[in-house]
Request: fold
Amino acid sequence: MTKAEAQAEIESLSEKVRYHNHLYYQESKSEISDFDFDQLLKKLIDLETQFPEFLKEDSPSQRVGGAITKSFNTVEHEYPMLSLGNTYSVEEIQDFDGRVKKNLGHDDYEYFCELKFDGVALSVKYENGVLKQAVTRGDGVRGDDITTNAKTIRTLPLRLTKGEFPERFEVRGEVFMPNKVFENLNKEREEIGEERLANPRNTASGTLKMQDSAIVSKRKLDCYLYALYGVDVDTHETAIKSLESWGFNVSPTYRKCQTIQQVIDYINEWEHKRHDLPLETDGIVIKVNSLAHQSELGFTAKSPRWAISYKYKAESAITKLKDITYQVGRTGAITPVAELEPVLLAGTTVKRASLHNANEIARLGLRIGDMVSVEKGGEIIPKVTAVDLASRSADSVEFNYTETCPECGTHLIRKEGEAVHYCPNVTGCPPQILGRIEHFIHRKSMNIESLGPETLRGLLDRELINNYADLYHLTFEQLNGLAFEVYSEKKGESSTRSLREKSAKNIIASIEKSKENPFESVLFSLGIRYVGKTVAEKLAQHFKSIDALMAASQEQLVDAHEIGERIAASVIEFFSEEKNVALVESLKTSGLNFELVEKESTQVSDALDGKTFVISGVFTKYGRDELKAIIQDHGGKIVSSISGKLDFLVAGDKMGPSKLEKATKLGTKIISEEEFEEMIK
Ligand code: IVH
Reply:
């Protein structure tokens, strides 16, 4: 390919990716499959790597990150990033209005109200419609240049395509992690035994300062814009409308208010409604609308006189601490839990609150029987924030944190530098045993989910299994008709259940099938702390077999791509336990895969390159699996359901009418076995 051709191809691919990105993120539509989109992007990245001279700063490839920033440059802000004065009551809001009126000398002004988004402030410069530089607030005068990371925020335009915008301008807004993204991230962390992240704001802030922009991209940050600088407009409202018209992401929650009473109404209206928004908010921001009025009012040393924030009180309630109990996690981590007299808080009844660890209990000075404040702040789970010492009864006694595991009685340990206590009885502590087996059979691990949680508990109670390796020794005879106790929390009582023949057969079959899982899945399923799915894949790729992994030193582990000290230490610790080695040996004997099967490409042509297929019904010449393999061998992709993105439905005999109807409705191409054969001729 000549340079000129490469440049033209890069431009054409960039245009396509931009178009599909726009459809997907702005209009929630898609015209091509995810696979086709990934192929376009991959082609673009490959060409840009080959011809770096044509890599443009607004290339859509920048969304997926990849660049590493060792240390961020400090940049001086052209317009200082000030903070806002806070108010907490209607009186203070009225006082603010009084000051505005007095300083302007009249009452002919308007306000513009917005929600106060709880994230990280960001200032972004655009030149000729192209994102040039993104800088954090820092100390307000200087901040960090985090342009590479900011470019991964999908809603922040890399290049403007709409409206008439000036040559140079600066926008400001709040970067945040949507609550859903935050919850998913925490779920993933819990799955691999990592501590939960405290709240979306700190997570967003930490993410923006990460060195690897590819990880930032995966964290799915978002951004709402709320200010425009360097543009001559009359009102803040015009600034906001301009931002909207140029394609920036502006939260539609704003409102122009003519009087301070309307501002107060806005505050009241959003007090509860804000919890339905996809992000955390902690108040509202009130801005004088006219820019002429703003400059007349000016600034104090720290903040503008034309704007103020109203902070909602973190919703709190007072109740009695009935007890402190402990939960034991899959990794043996102990979490203390406050058992509370039920109390209404932000619309829900709260009975329990997280206490994090022993230090937190000591910091609060908690005692059983105390009256405590419970709050729902940025964190989704309520927490105990204070103790009312005045109401403490004279006979209350100091609280002593448990020294032994509440489940198995083993003496707890606390590792140096860690706040959390652990139960070291890894192989004998019931919730740890159960948790590890649950992880092992999980859909994302060995996928033996025909074994439900109640049956699993039953098998443990009846001592038919004691660890995940024992699953492979279960027989149909043992399971058929097996009776076990099931406890119903709702009824508060136990009843007896017995396994039917069909369930027993299913369980045995899915255990047998699980032996087909590849090495990387088996490795993930072992439940080694900090070894999540991606890490397991990396380790499997690097070491190729469990024997090599078990023999690896700390240094050799760290040498593997993207494996850090903490993961390496955890792997070493896991295999230094004789019991774990015995588990692996037992699984090996049962026939699980402990060696990497390098996927050899069986591709014979690219006739179906990137095309998606659903196959349905019965075929005359091929079995279904055979047909699937043929599609893949020609570069096609099998998907499980019919959607607007699907390219072909290969229809055999006895295909279900609902599938046919759906495909017809969506305009999917429906092809016969013979037509399919034509495609790969
Ligand atoms: S305007 C002169 N509008 O609150 C200050 N700020 O304490 C102009 N914030 O650093 C800021 N939502 O990070 C403004 N709708 C909003 C906001 C907002 C959140 C944050 C921002 C700022 C801090 C000020």
